[in-house]
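Sequence and structure are kept together here, with a separate record for every protein. An example record follows, reproduced without changes.
>
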Amino acid sequence: MKHAFHALAGILALAAFGAAHADTDTQDFKVLLEIADSCSISTTTKPSDVDFGKQVRSTGSATANNGKIYVKCNKGASFHIGLNGGLNYGMAATVAGSKTDPVAGGRAMTNAGKTVYIPYELYSDAATTFWGNTVGTSTFDPPVAPDDKEMSFTVYGKVPSLDFPKGKYEDTITATVTF
């Protein structure tokens, strides 16, 4: 029995010696995640047109029935809404800017034959703040999204003069959300 005890003690000592001298190596790695802002112009609720309606020819101006743009962003997203110059930009007046980066006074509606151009403008508020497409300068910059629900933004319009021939006039504007 004494021999068995010494043999067992020797085996345990060797096992402990082997475990004490085992080599190890470590390496750190990261677990990463980036959550980005996300915004889109709604595809379920289409923008409503800025409609000046039927007007009588005069030297007076016309204010539109307001249009709406619908945007959905994730909660806390910071975003800007821009409006381009439209299809007929610069046709009613010689102005700086471009269709993608308009300045005030450059938008125009045209008749079907594209023979008459009527200047008009779009604003982000009733006080006629020009609504363009340059982030930080002429875009509409609402507060951060309070939640992830769809938000509506009003587009105001004005035609400075109605002294043009009878007819139907239109333009197409592209809205862009930048986030």
